[in-house]
């Protein structure tokens, strides 16, 4: 594969939290540009820890984004390539208004204010929340908060979208709406989730984590139809 066809390269990534819990052990995989990959695994398998390495919130050895190592020195460039949507929107939304929440990252990049306004409007339209600029995320439903959190990342126009449990705490209709939105957005997507139906619907590839290591990597229709395998890894 040519280097520029590779969106994410992770080679031998290990990580322990300061209290000594081993979260990732020798994790290696590659994600091609335009690929949509689902990461599944029981609670504590290491999904969120892995995602935090993709935009440099955690910095480990062996992570490159379109050929660029994820290091402190490259953090700004990495974050212009990789947008991370947290599982809990309250971790992403902290401003008095939705407008300011979405504008926050753009203003940090010193993007001119008229362009900021345009991007806020556009990203709200994309997530189906046109006109929510003056609202406060604090008072919105979980489903709406999740979509605003996604809008903050879409406004940054990153090539790679990384989502942690995008459908958790949503009702069936909310889950359908997020699935449709992610399908429509396209691009390179990494989705950590317990929602196997979402992976079946959207992903061409699934990676299964267990106790910080990869135990399967392949086509959802093969891996997710293996009932004995799913049970063995606490996925059903
Ligand atoms: N902030 C933290 N401090 C210490 N240990 C943590 C922290 N976050 C996660 N862990 C531990 O790291 C491992 C992986 O957790 P996590 O990445 O959250 O898994 P998942 O997202 O698959 O549920 C677990 O053993 C978890 O207890
Ligand atoms: Mg998690």
Map the helices and strands.
Layout (H helix, E strand, L loop, with lengths): L5 E11 L5 E11 L3 E5 L6 H8 L8 E3 L2 E2 L5 H7 E4 L12 H11 L4 H14 L15 H13 L5 E5 L7 H14 L2 E5 L3 H7 L2 E6 L2 E6 L1 H4 L3 H6 L4
Helix pairs in contact: 3-4, 3-5, 4-5
Can you describe this structure?
- This protein is of the alpha/beta class.
- The protein is 36% helix and 25% strand.
- Strand 7, helix 6 and strand 8 form a beta-alpha-beta unit.
- The protein is globular.
- The structure holds adenosine-5'-diphosphate and magnesium ion.
- The site of adenosine-5'-diphosphate has 12 residues, from helix 1.
Biggest sheet descriptor: 6 strands, mixed
CATH class annotation: Alpha Beta
User: Which homologous superfamily in CATH is the superfamily?
Assistant: P-loop containing nucleotide triphosphate hydrolases
Our count of domains comes out at: 1
- Span from first to last CA? 35 Å
Q: Could you say which overall geometry the principal axes of the C-alpha atoms support?
A: globular
Helix content: 25-40%
> Order of strands across the biggest sheet?
6-7-8-3-9-10
DSSP strand count: 10
| CATH overall fold name | Rossmann fold
Q: Round the Cα radius of gyration to an integer and report it.
A: 18 Å
Tell me which ligands are bound.
Answer: adenosine-5'-diphosphate, magnesium ion
CATH architecture: 3-Layer(aba) Sandwich
Number of helices: 9
Low-confidence stretches: none
SSE order, one letter for each helix or strand = EEEHEEHEHHHEHEHEEHH
Percent range for β-strand residues: 15-25%
Broad structural category: alpha/beta
**Average pLDDT level:** 96
């Amino acid at each position: 594969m040519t280097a520029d066809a590779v969106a994410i390269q992770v080679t031998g990534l290990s990580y322990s939290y300061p209290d000594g819990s081993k979260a990732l052990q020798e994790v290696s995989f590659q994600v091609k540009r335009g690929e949509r990959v689902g990461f599944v695994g029981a609670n504590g398998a290491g999904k969120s820890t892995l995602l935090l390495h993709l935009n440099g919130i955690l910095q480990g050895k062996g992570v490159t984004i379109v050929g660029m190592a994820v290091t402190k020195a490259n953090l700004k460039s990495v974050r212009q390539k990789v947008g991370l949507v947290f599982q809990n929107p309250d971790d992403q939304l902290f401003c008095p208004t939705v407008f300011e929440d979405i504008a926050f990252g753009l203003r940090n990049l010193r993007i001119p204010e008229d362009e900021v306004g345009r991007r806020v409007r556009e990203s709200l339209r994309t997530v189906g929340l046109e006109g929510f600029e003056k609202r406060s995320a604090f008072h919105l439903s979980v489903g709406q908060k999740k979509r605003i959190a996604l809008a903050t990342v879409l406004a940054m126009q990153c090539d790679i979208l990384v989502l942690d449990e995008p459908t958790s705490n949503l009702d069936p209709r909310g889950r359908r709406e997020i699935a449709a939105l992610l399908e429509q957005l396209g691009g390179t997507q990494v989705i950590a989730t317990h929602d196997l139906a979402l992976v079946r619907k959207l992903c061409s590839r699934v990676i299964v984590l267990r106790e910080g290591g990869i135990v399967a990597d392949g086509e959802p229709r093969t891996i997710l139809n293996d009932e004995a395998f799913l049970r063995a890894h606490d996925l059903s």
